[in-house]
């Protein structure tokens, strides 16, 4: 609780200074509180950017459930064009994520980097800031494609330094995703090396690991393995596999729930409900892949009741339970009426007090399983990934012993098609992490749509044009928000004219 109060105080001080800097005129001399800094320290700014990853309002919940959570096939919505997993139409409200990421995270990271360079010029602090910059940037480019990167946020740092603000700074150009990925991996290369040595860190201002060098090395290297896997950089994959990775649930990188915060206000410090939105329901794909399509629950995935609920109570207190193997969703049916019985279980995932998971041990194990050349090692990492996911939710630590029927079922999946089984279990472990689920589905669309997800059973194409190919039906990227057209139109149009050769098209 003491740390929670400390985090809150740090965040509030940072936010007050960050957001009010532009609102002051000649009041400084008349009304200055000597106990309240007029400018946040780099540590306070870093804390704020960490909390902002978890959401500074409701953009994170909408990103996870109404956008990437649906495109990643975890959820389906009942609200018109938010039913993207069925219709392929663009999601609503997604522009909030872009806008708040650039305003609250990108800009403040640039300010923190500039301030560290002007003060102690700590290599370790700069490496931690770079890792956080990469984490935020890779989520944005994975969702949108080409984005402002190298010049993004420079205006914030220039304004803080009192420098002239030019159009080049205020309206940053868009950079190609290939250039962005090359730079992100280079930053992680440097971070792994730098953070392997002692140095001055942010200490308790770091909400993720409390400034622990070894843990930050694991996060930086695990992120490098994720990104190298995504773009097929085998050399960086092998380099990452030779260095420390996130190994246990104690190593998980997450933004903790601090116990306070306004989930709707712009000043929220991250305690917004993580991703469950009232109009989002578990998709048919999620329900189908987690049960064995029979009435025997012993071989179903034990995480089903952790992720979702299958009961409803009427006004008279009568509780109704729907079998997990729910009726199939058909074209033209109302999603809310059919899947309304199933909702996200906010007691465990996506509630207001849920932490924001940045990188889990389960994901690290599944990545290792993907790259293991030895069959026995591949199976070991596969099992370890399932075990880590179960353990995180308090469901035991040995799937073979605790859930023998379920283990027999997913072992049969592995023996039949190891690659598909690994991706399937990784996708299940990612429920609640919409951006990563969306990336995983696109990275291996040929496996997911056909082997993991069965057309007509797990998803239905209800587009108007029955002759549409899947490439035309599925939404491979999110369109730039409307706000960019009004504030950075020329550069946005230049990005739209660039070759659309993103990692998921190669």
TrEMBL record:
<dbReference type="Pfam" id="PF12771">
    <property type="entry name" value="SusD-like_2"/>
</dbReference>
<keyword id="KW-0614">Plasmid</keyword>
<dbReference type="InterPro" id="IPR041662">
    <property type="entry name" value="SusD-like_2"/>
</dbReference>
<dbReference type="InterPro" id="IPR011990">
    <property type="entry name" value="TPR-like_helical_dom_sf"/>
</dbReference>
<protein>
    <recommendedName>
        <fullName>SusD/RagB family nutrient-binding outer membrane lipoprotein</fullName>
    </recommendedName>
</protein>
<keyword id="KW-0732">Signal</keyword>
<feature type="signal peptide">
    <location>
        <begin position="1"/>
        <end position="16"/>
    </location>
</feature>
